[in-house]
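Example record

The entry below shows one chain as it appears in the dataset: sequence first, then structure tokens.
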Amino acid sequence: MNVNVNISTNKIIKNINVDVVLLLIICFGAFLRLYMLDFQEPWLDEISTFQVTDPTLSFKESNWLIMNRDGFPHFYFLSIKYLSAVFGHSIFLLRFFSAFFGTLTIYYVFKLFKELFNKNYGYVGAVLLAVNYFHIFHSQEARCYTVLAFFVVFATYKTIVFLKESNYRNAVVLGIALGLIPNAHPLGFLNIAVLFSTMGMVFLTTKKLKEHIKYLLVMLAIILICALPLLPKLLVLSSIQSFWIPEANYENIKTAFFELTGSINSIFYIYVFGLMISLLFAVVFLLKKSSYKKKIEEIALNYLLLFWLLINIGVIIVKSYVSISIILNRYFTGALVLFLLALVYCLYLLKNRWLNILLTTYIALHSLWFLVYEKKHYTTVTKTQFVQLSQEIIKNYHNNENVYSAYGFVMNILFKNSPCYSNMREITFDDYLNNIRNNPKDKENFWYFDGNFRPFNLTIENQLFLEQNFVMDQQVEKLDCWARHYIVKGSEGKIAETHELTLKEFPNIKIEGDNMHYMFQNATIKSKILNLKKGKYALEIEAKSFPEVPINNENAILEVKLNDQKLWKGQLKTNELTPITVNFEITDQNPKIISLSFLNDVAVNDQDRNMAIKRV
């Protein structure tokens, strides 16, 4: 049987409708975000992201880090964690995730502005975002801010689509889009309030609220479902009593918006002027009753501008004055599109083609000049060089010495698979030296490193104590970070002696700032190989069970073994460390390994049984 298949390539080509201008803008924006993506080393917050998204961690361990060590919800971290499990865990992948959403945001700014104005103003909005230095910078960071910006723009676009065509399908899509915003950052709840307020007022002023209330209830239900996993995180964040951000004042607020709009004076004032004019017109527009007969997207646009200013920006500023300040450029990420929208709205009102071209060209060229030649973004190292510093410490590390840092808990990820990993401690240099001064017998050879705007700086008393009792034999200096190795005076040149077994001799464990190793699931830790002489020995252990109230009337069970020989097994106390002493005898010369096992992990009604080992 013969079958003739005729394919008309002309018809196929005609059906492929490519917006060449938009494609060029998106490709250029993607280039600015992907070029030299891993040129800068990760700074402190990015290292925190790298730690939390480690694919080798269990879900329980990742969850603990998210709840206790970082400020973002689970969605961002777990998305990267599972991507890392497939494609490998690297700073490049973490930043690519941000760059991808940053590029996608350019496309949806075009879609949003096309819905509100027309295609040409969609191009203007896309260009303005593509060259915005703040957005480019954060598109090359392993943090969640471009993901937040994307969800805000996407949800705003879907809001306009829903207002134009209200049905259950669009309501469900918009509900999901709104629910995703706070899953990128808790401040995203402000953007939900902006968009819900806009929809509510549009329906009120057009006298269509009653017929649309069913759709709003569907959205609200979906938002609550999406936001429910955030409740524990919100409770943790709400308990914060102090923060490192400077107090709220005019200069700090101005600086935040100056950086948000691209860190260029002339462009900053263009955006501010555009915002003021557009807000003035929005007020006049909404005061006229005849305005409510306009197209629904025009009504929505004016409400959107007002609520964005009052809720998204206003709440952050008022909150910063009355309680803990959160005046920081990146915390206004959800309002970035407001400045673009306000400026494009002014251009739309003026309807002057040449003004559109001249202003857009000026902002684009000046922004690119600033990016490449003034900031030297792609050629000048500006971020803390913790990676190089950690490599120098690892290269010069010996004798199983402790390594201390004010950021020890986070920085430990850089020492993974190195001998330093289990010997990292989090403590400030002054606090460490105060401890040694109070307990002189604890003097030891050690490494200390710090950075991220923390220069070497000790109290006079501690500086004198350090010089009188220690000799610095190694020093490493990198951009915005430093490390020093100290030897106890009188021990120079001595060969390190063997010492008793301690918790530090258990490879691949993590000792936290409270000097305890936590076990969040059934697991076994094993000591290094021990070559013990024949004789009698005593093994002392201090451990503790969590939570304080036993689960099913049972605490954590610890089992101690010497090779395959069980030495001890029993329940630990919860309200205090359980001292355990195990006596045993060695009768042969075979190598020995001590193993400590957590046997009965369980989770019941949001309570999780865990175990912590303090001392061996």
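Notes for this example: Residues 5-9, 494-499 have pLDDT under 50 and may be disordered. The chain is about 50% helix and 15% strand.
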